[in-house]
Amino acid sequence: MTAALRLAVALLLAALATFVGPAVASAHAVRISTDPAENAALDIGPDTVSATFNEQLQPQFAAMTVVGPDGNLWSDGEPRVVGAVLSTAVRPLGPVGTYTVNYRVTSADGHPVSGTWSFRLTRAGSGTPGPAAAAPSGEHGLPVWPFLAGATALIAGGALWAVRRRT
């Protein structure tokens, strides 16, 4: 095997190990609790909802919404980040059913983290909803792995071409 081919194979294996190898311990924020608790059954809606994470959060670009069974927003105002807690105010709730809390935060390491949890309202309230909730974007889009595989192939091909060009 020539030196150029060995280098190209080594680069390809290194690139593949980056994407396919065992997961390295992640430093991203992890949600450790919610208020109200996930799947809680409530007679009266909460004034606020909050999610607590295992590390401090960056306040930039934080988002949190509460979407009711009617498809409308029941969250009110801008979300607030205090240390490791993300929260938002909630309007007095209305229809009985499942309310879904959607959130997006930025970890201390700069990576975005998003997720959802739900709770149920068991007794109708008299609240007035906000506007219709916007459809989530990018949550269920294209898988990332084809782009990573393509990038790896391009890098390996470029390295092989550069090495062969030198010889």
How would you characterize this protein structure?
It is built from 2 helices and 8 strands; from the N terminus they run H-E-E-E-E-E-E-E-E-H. The protein is an alpha+beta fold and 167 residues long. It has a 4-stranded antiparallel beta sheet, with no helix packed on it. A 4-stranded mixed beta sheet has the order 2-8-7-4, with no helix packed on it. The longest helix has 22 residues, at 145-166. The model is unreliable at 21-25 and 137-142 (pLDDT under 50).
Task: List its salient traits.
8 strands, 167 residues, alpha+beta, 24% helix, 4-stranded antiparallel beta sheet
Brief overview:
By secondary structure, the chain is α+β, with helices and mostly antiparallel strands. It has helices spanning 3-20, 145-166; strands spanning 31-35, 41-42, 48-53, 57-67, 75-82, 85-90, 97-107, 112-121. It has a four-stranded antiparallel sheet with strand order 1-3-6-5, with no helix packed on it. A four-stranded mixed sheet has the order 2-8-7-4, with no helix packed on it.
What integer value in Å does the Rg equal?
23 Å
**Strand fraction:** 35-45%
User: How many alpha or pi helices?
Assistant: 2
The mean pLDDT is 83
C-alpha end-to-end distance: 14 Å
Into which percent range does the helicity of residues fall? 10-25%
Topology:
Blueprint: H1 3-20, E1 31-35, E2 41-42, E3 48-53, E4 57-67, E5 75-82, E6 85-90, E7 97-107, E8 112-121, H2 145-166
Parallel strand pairs: 2-8
Antiparallel strand pairs: 1-3, 3-6, 4-7, 5-6, 7-8
Helix pairs in contact: 1-2
